[in-house]
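**Paired protein data**
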Amino acid sequence: MPKVLSPLLLAAIERYSAAREARTDLAKPIVDFIAATGDQSPASIADADGAIASAARLWSWSRKLSWFERNVFGKRADRDLLDEVPGLAYLFLFHKNGFLRQAALERISGPISNAFLVAALAWRRNDWVDQVRASAKACMDRCLPSTSPDVLAEFFLETAGPRSTWRRWSDAQRQSMDALLARPEVAAEIVAQLLMQRDGPLPSWLRYLLRYEWIDPYLKILASEAKIPGVRAVALQALAYGFARSTDGSRQRFWIDKPMGIIGWRPHVQQRALTIHSDRSEAIRSGLQDCSTAVRKVALEAIMDRASDDTELVALAEPFLNDRSACIRSKAAFIVERVK
């Protein structure tokens, strides 16, 4: 069985499959499944989709049951169970049959309990079936406004990279999804996680979020108080340069050797001006006082960029000629030598 599923989630799905085969009550296995999805990373949704369908035997085709099988033997088709078993719609989000995926989306209402299930709804907006995508949008519009901000924050952060590669989203769909970030309570929770968390690709998450103007007012606190140096460095870079660079998951081609016809690929970088006033010199001075080499490096690089129009900043580099980091000493020496 694919290792992409957490042991807790896989065990819950296997209990469902066993109960389905034995034609026993499915209510408890479905409750267990919903609870176990909280143990699954939202970022794994693309791989987990097929793994869940396979483990739960949610095939795209099934034989139509006869009246005799339904009423004498008590057999139930998946569509019958969808109306009979509370919560089964969450499992059927992963069904191989598009009609049942759409039917499941139409039955889900209320707040979503964890980030993985939010990711499942978002993944259905990337579904290959148009009708499923439309139902997924309606479901998210119905459910996400009442979903807890901490659940939405976890979803947005952990799926930042994967969502940028989903290509069935239109620009309008992306914008409607991103509008949820503009909710003050969600934005505040996202910033709180960037400030306090100590694990995960936090700098990458922040760099992705720099595409949104709502993050700008939080950059100063992120540059000074984030626990992870990489987060402070990314925030400081935006403040010191006065603009934000972000990537959208796409790549652009560039020439390595045009006469030889050799090309390469690099991430497509977007750039926008900050919407807040940023004292660039003050940001640089603050960065130079940071205990992290990564942050001081960004501050010195900003001095190198501004050395020609602000000679006072150049003097700030001299104390770093004897820094414990060879990288910092090298950059400080370059600044001092260039001015001379």
